[in-house]
Protein: HTH cro/C1-type domain-containing protein
Organism: Subdoligranulum variabile DSM 15176
Amino acid sequence: MHISYKPLWHTLLERDMRKEDLRLAAGMTTNMIANMSKEGKHISMDTLARICETLNCEITDVIELVPDEPTSTGGKEHERIETKNNGKRN
């Protein structure tokens, strides 16, 4: 699973706010906002709490957990097992 900030961007749109407005109101750095805009980057729980307090909203209005796409375990994994067993199947 990974964290998505899509709910935050929707919340800002609903409130007619820009990222810069949030940054200033919550006392955040530009790096914090930039990290939230990048896939896989995280911010601290303290910062998330500050955002919720600033926007007077719930954490679900800021983040959501998104399942990672499943990876296939065919092909290469099967080859590794066979190589590990010297080509012998159990």
Summary: Confidence is low (pLDDT under 50) at residues 77-83. Residues 2-66 form a domain with the 434 Repressor (Amino-terminal Domain) fold (CATH 1.10.260.40).
